[in-house]
Amino acid sequence: MTGTIYRLTTKDFAVLEVMLMRRRALADPAVPMLERKLAESSVVPIGTVEPDVATLNSRVIFRVDDGQAETRTLVLGDAYAPVGSGLPVGTWRGLCLLGMRAGQSALIERPDGSGERILLEDVAYQPEAARRTAPDAAAGRRSHGLRLVYSAEADRWPLGGDGKIRQTEGDDPGPSAA
User: Fold this and answer.
1) Domain of 85?
2) pLDDT above 90 covers what percent of the chain?
3) pLDDT for the residue numbered 1
4) Which of 122, 152, 166, 172 could tie 61 with a disulfide, CB 3.0–4.6 Å?
């Protein structure tokens, strides 16, 4: 990753900082790449990031060198996406793509001297942009994703019950009822 300026949300920046601290303790070879990523990034508030910037949980379309275009979701780890659809930001490619703009490319230089050029073709979905365009966002309400399907009146009980508590004091049938 050289000469590219990245835009990270405050959340993505914090995630990378924690990743850097943990990997430094393990002498991980990705530490220099993480340090460069954080040094070459400008940090923006979550609500103001442009829709063409790859953020955590964004679905991105990218190309490695002259290979075929791939579509993946940038995730925190392997367990956060169905098999084959996620690209963890802890990998070389995932880390490189995080914070890039559509149309931007970068060179990944690995410790063994090999390298590959990654081109971010498009950001097909970005959660921050989706949040801004949601219908409830326009009304100032925050959607929880739930929808009321049925609401019974307070005096109606399920299965025709009358709302009384069956057991009263002195009406204990004992252990044989269990």
Assistant:
1) 6-133
2) 44
3) 47
4) 122
- Is the distance from CB of 125 to CB of 58 less than 8 angstroms? yes
DSSP output for 140-163? TPPP-S--------TT--GGG--S
Residue 136 CA to residue 54 CA, distance in Å, equals: 24
- Tokens matching residue 91: 């990998």
Q: What is the domain-level CATH number for residue 64? A: 3.10.50.30
Whether 53 contacts 126, CB under 8 Å = yes
8 A C-beta contact, residue 31 and residue 23: yes
Domain membership of residue 151 (yes or no) is: no
Integer-rounded Cα Rg, in Å, for the chain is: 25
